[in-house]
Amino acid sequence: MKAHITLLLLSSLLSAQTATDLVTFEKFLDNSNEVTAILNDTTMGLYNAVSHSEIEYGEGTFAMEGSLLGLDKKDSTDITSYTLKSEHQNLPIKQLNYNYKINYYTSGDNDKLQGIDADFGMGYNLVNISKDEYISLGIDLGVSLFL
Hints:
alpha+beta, 5 strands, disordered N terminus, extended, 34% helix, 5-stranded antiparallel β-sheet
């Protein structure tokens, strides 16, 4: 009789332990579904942003000019630039738009000038004249880094 009661107690503890694990596993599945949905939305957003992009390649002269305490300095060097940009793309949210331009500059001579110039903007279409014509008001944030 004692062995039977002990066995019943052990089996009830085992099923209680398994029930806790099932609840934990169910929460894990719910969380993983949410994470998967967020990753899918982010991936599609990045895909849409990049798929509407243009890639440009250019060569030219980069010139800098400055003055400090009466000393003027001018310098120029030949550079190559690579650009990824998107000029005006409407978001799924009505009237909102975005744009960006990321430039990478590098020189091949002894100066070894390298830099990144990036601009990101958000805007609001005040008037939509046609599919490709609009009057928009926005804000732009830019940063330039030279290495």
